[in-house]
Amino acid sequence: MLKLYYSPGACAIASHIGLEEAGADYEIEKIDLRAGQQRTPEYLAINPAGVTPALQTSEGVITQNAAILTYVAQTHPQAGLANLNDPFQFARLQAVNGWLASSLHPAIGKALFSRPALEGEAKDDAVKVALEKYDLAENHMLAGPWVLGEDYSMADGYLMVFTRWARQAALLDTTRFAKLNDHLDRVQARPAVQRVLAAEGIQAV
Ligand SMILES: N[C@@H](CCC(=O)N[C@@H](CS)C(=O)NCC(=O)O)C(=O)O
């Protein structure tokens, strides 16, 4: 059986949602990031990078949300969470997920979760840079109603991670980011996402 190592509300929730939406047979194990459990020898043996998510499969461990989401989509094709037969459409999914991992996540992560926490001008600058990336998502990355268009895909639960964090930090202005707010509401309303939130012991925001 697949096993997902996650931390509540952290970016691993993208993989958790992907597994649940796919109807996968999986179990979860919580890694307490605040307690430093990601740096224990036991967890470093699973993911030497010391971050969540990690997905244990019968063939070995997969890390990185973008890779896990692709793997789950390919191993559960009946769920229709990626357009596996159309190279262009599949590349569109990869492009969004690659951007989320390499651009939006580091930017909002720096603004909100730097240790020690940013303050003053440094914090303002980091927030400004992050919000410019949310502008890009708002204006260019939501084909509507879902990220890639008519069909919900493995990109939607991943984008939701970062809109959720932004809303929690009161950064997701409802005028500037009207589409992202609407998208976040619709993702959180999905039954599979509600099951994931309950399993992680967290609430819709
Ligand atoms: N691009 C990676 C990011 C993984 C990552 O940074 N995870 C964070 C939580 S959102 C983490 O585990 N941080 C623990 C730490 O840095 O100590 C992915 O998508 O899997």
From TrEMBL:
Residues 86-205 form the GST C-terminal domain. Residues 1-80 form the GST N-terminal domain. InterPro entries: Glutathione-S-Trfase_C-like, Glutathione-S-Trfase_C_sf, Glutathione_S-Trfase, Glutathione_S-Trfase_N, Thioredoxin-like_sf. PANTHER family: GLUTATHIONE S-TRANSFERASE GSTA, GLUTATHIONE S-TRANSFERASE-RELATED. This is Glutathione S-transferase N-terminal domain-containing protein.
